[in-house]
């Protein structure tokens, strides 16, 4: 069972030459990346407001840990403080008084930590440069796994040790639903927020594919209506849980950022899998593959990924406000009639159109036909850039 996926962020970690804040949602692989790729002289994880844990699992007091960090930096070494958002802010002022010696890397498992560190009133402002670690890029996973469906799930690193196939993921969805809720709770805790019923209901509905804030507000009926829901969805986006994708109608399409979390939330919303023994036979994996492949193609063609629910177009790539490509993405094969209909529909929107099939190369009716082999070739080209 594979435990580690190589990713292009490794080179960014190895090239760190100044004080750096590494941040991102919990369980995206930040600590593992640093431990595997940064030559460090001292590492400490902040456990709580009083205690810290060293690399050899020794529990020490925070005062002792910070003193050791300062000493390493004074000697020109590299020191890492993990879970920096848990460090009492008294120590922030202390760190701001240190000479800029050595390399200090701080890791924060939240997006809120960025606002705090770079706030105009922060004592740390001007001392660190930011480096975001998101879920793994689809192309990084695909080049190593080769399986376009499993690669979609493996983008969220926490799931990798548990499964070897999409089918195994579906068969164990109850377990993963419970883990996902715990992970979401952790995200809220690190962002210093409470996972309320309303927030969780929003996530469940987004996982189910309901993306308009007006529809979500109509179902939940919160005090303040759609304005409240819009505000909460934007907060979820700032936490790294929700992704905003523009549409051709100038609305934002909201979705769960992680394919793995999205599918577990769908299963929970549709079947309440955490509370029942109901067998789930399949999940909307096609939608998750669609967005992952679209994200990769947008990088490849140097544009911005759009989605068009109104015109039913899976991926539109926009460059300088102009739709340059449109793609139809299918898990299975394209029949001749399906390919012709998709090309005709997409040609009304974009300059060029393409067909993507995870099963076999589609018929050559559009400007580009992409099968599994071509998909892997595109991923390899992106990884080599």
From TrEMBL:
InterPro entries: AAA_14, P-loop_NTPase. Residues 18-116 form the AAA domain. This is ATPase. It comes from Saccharolobus caldissimus.
């Amino acid at each position: 069972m594979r435990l580690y996926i190589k990713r292009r962020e490794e080179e960014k970690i190895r090239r760190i030459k100044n004080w750096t804040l590494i941040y991102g949602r919990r369980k995206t692989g930040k600590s593992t990346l640093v431990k595997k790729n940064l030559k460090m002289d001292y590492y400490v994880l902040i456990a709580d407001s009083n205690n810290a844990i060293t690399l050899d699992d020794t529990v020490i007091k925070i005062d002792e840990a910070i003193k050791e960090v300062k000493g390493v930096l004074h000697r020109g070494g590299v020191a890492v403080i993990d879970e920096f958002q848990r460090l009492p802010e008294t120590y922030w002022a202390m760190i701001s008084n240190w000479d800029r010696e050595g390399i200090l890397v701080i890791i924060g498992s939240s997006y809120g930590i960025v606002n705090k560190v770079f706030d105009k009133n922060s004592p740390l402002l001007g001392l660190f440069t930011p480096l975001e670690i998101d879920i793994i890029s689809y192309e990084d996973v695909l080049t190593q796994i080769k399986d376009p469906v499993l690669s979609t799930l493996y983008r969220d690193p926490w799931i990798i040790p548990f499964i070897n196939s999409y089918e195994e993921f579906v068969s164990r969805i109850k377990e993963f639903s419970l883990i996902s809720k715990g992970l979401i709770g952790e995200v809220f805790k690190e962002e210093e927020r409470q996972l309320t019923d309303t927030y969780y209901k929003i996530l469940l509905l987004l996982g189910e594919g309901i993306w308009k804030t007006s529809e979500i507000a109509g179902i939940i009926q919160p005090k303040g209506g759609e304005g409240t829901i819009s505000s909460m969805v934007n907060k979820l986006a700032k936490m790294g849980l929700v992704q905003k994708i523009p549409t051709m109608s100038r609305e934002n399409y909201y979705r769960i950022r992680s394919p793995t979390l999205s599918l577990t939330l769908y299963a929970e919303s549709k079947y309440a899998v955490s509370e029942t023994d109901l067998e789930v036979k399949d999940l909307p994996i096609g939608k998750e593959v669609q967005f992952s492949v679209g994200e990769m193609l947008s990088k490849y063609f140097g544009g911005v990924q759009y989605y068009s629910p109104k015109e039913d177009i899976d991926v539109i790539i926009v460059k300088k406000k102009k739709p340059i490509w449109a793609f139809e993405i299918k898990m299975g094969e394209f029949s001749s009639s399906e390919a012709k209909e998709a090309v005709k529909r997409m040609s009304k929107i974009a300059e060029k159109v393409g067909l993507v099939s995870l099963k076999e190369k589609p018929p050559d009716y559009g400007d580009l036909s992409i099968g599994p082999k071509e998909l892997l070739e595109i991923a390899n080209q992106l990884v080599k850039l």
